[in-house]
Amino acid sequence: MSGGGDGGARPRRSRWRVLLIVAGAVVAADQATKTLAVDELGARPVHVLGPLSLHLAYNTGVAFSIGAGWTLPIVLLVAVLVGVLLGYGRSVDGAGAAAALGLVLGGALGNLGDRLFRGHGGAVVDFVRVGFWPTFNLADAAIVCGGAVLAFSISRRPPARRARRSGPA
Questions:
Q1: Which of 44, 86, 96, 128 is buried deepest, with most CB atoms within 10 A?
Q2: What is the tens place of the pLDDT at every residue in 2-23?
Q3: Helix/strand/coil for 127
């Protein structure tokens, strides 16, 4: 039997697959690079090119070290954010937006994993330093890039679809 009632089920499963594969790849790459940074960098920074260097740092806050030392509230907030992202994943349009959401979700899970399992007092491992910018990691880069692509994707939606998605069901 074909054509039945699953009109949107196959594309929806495909978007979920993209979202979960991208999120899983980000978590794996993020954790692998952080492990290498902890094992190899120690106290000695490594100059790469121009303003780019690798320097091991631990951040107990969020972006720009805001909220340093507030591990429990940050963990709870990120756990809620992960739930919101998964909920939003049900309504994401297209593989590009699903991949962008996967970047944000993977980054959030990568940093949450640091706080819960790395044993650095709830700190996140950061190791990429670019000139004046605060030290960051692959999860942070995935969150920023995914957020930018997701915002662009949402802004490109026709106004009627944006209103329908955000309005009452």
A1: 128
A2: 444 445 566 677 888 999 999 9
A3: strand
Q: Which position has the token pair 């709830």?
A: 122
**What is d(CA 158, CA 56) in angstroms, rounded to the nearest whole number?**
44
How many angstroms separate the CA atoms of 121 and 117, rounded? Answer: 10
- What is the C-alpha separation between 52 and 3, in angstroms, rounded? 54
Q: Rounded to an integer, what distance in angstroms lies between the CA atom of residue 107 and that of residue 27?
A: 7
35 token code pair: 């492990």
CB 78 within 8 A of CB 1: no
Q: To the nearest 10°, report the CA torsion of 17, 84, 161, 8.
A: 30
Catalytic residue positions, numbered: 126, 140
Go through the chain and tell me how many residues it has: 169
Instruction: Count Cβ atoms within 10 A of the Cβ of residue 31 and give its class: 0-12 exposed, 13-18 middle, 19 or more buried.
Output: buried
| Predicted model pTM | 0.80
Strands 52-59 and 124-130: antiparallel
Residue 106 to residue 88: CA distance in whole angstroms = 14
- Residue 110 in contact with residue 40, Cβ under 8 Å? no
φ and ψ at residue 51, rounded to 5 degrees: -80, -5
In this prediction, residue 168 carries a pLDDT of: 56
